[in-house]
Predict the structure of 4-nitrophenyl phosphatase.
Amino acid sequence: MKHYRAYCFDLDGTVYRGKEVIPTAIQFIHQLEDKQLDYFFVTNNSSKTPSQIKQTLQQFGLNVSEKQIYSSSLVTAKYVKKHFGQAKVFVIGQDGIRYALQQEGIDIVEENPDVVVMGIDRKIDYEKLTKACIAVQNGATLIGTNEDIKFPTEKGFHPGNGSFVKLVSQVSNVEPMFMGKPSPVMLEMIQQEYGYNKNEMLMIGDNYDTDILCGIRFGCDTVHVNTGVVNTEKVKEKGVQPTYCINDLSEFEL
């Protein structure tokens, strides 16, 4: 297998499933550390701040810097700031997306927003969804941090942010914008900040429709692992194949 300078990992379904670690992934990352190779985490999970994601990884035996963590919240907040300036934003979401928007100085409101931003919210309710639908029908732009319909946990699949954004979209008859994978923006940020060539980067993930397509659209090599959302059999039916298809990261030779 080819050698790379930057290994980019999805989290849910690749490094862990809910509160359950995937041991082969942790072992692989420790091998990268031993060989002094760079690695990053590229996640669509908008619920946690970089500090909270760092703490989660520490519980699994990984001591990482917040600079190694790139999330859909970060990308979404930067996009809103760049394209909507002083717009008022109604947010459905948890700490991660709220923290990212506040860091960009964005005005978060409950009424009459110019933009509706939706990230995963484990306390979502009918009232929040209704407010989002009404705001979008009144002209607010609908932005989702990511379009994942589901994500794996130790108990099974849970609804992802995309399922709720789709609901608001269908009620309001408006197409949403999505910021996270399969958009290549997070990989582009890593490349720009560290100066890698695309052929020196590798995207590793369990979900073909987000992780693998992100790498393909960016133009780097990809690894699909059979530990999460999409199994290998389904991946082999796709028109464009990952560079590597493996059961888990114990099969990837450094």
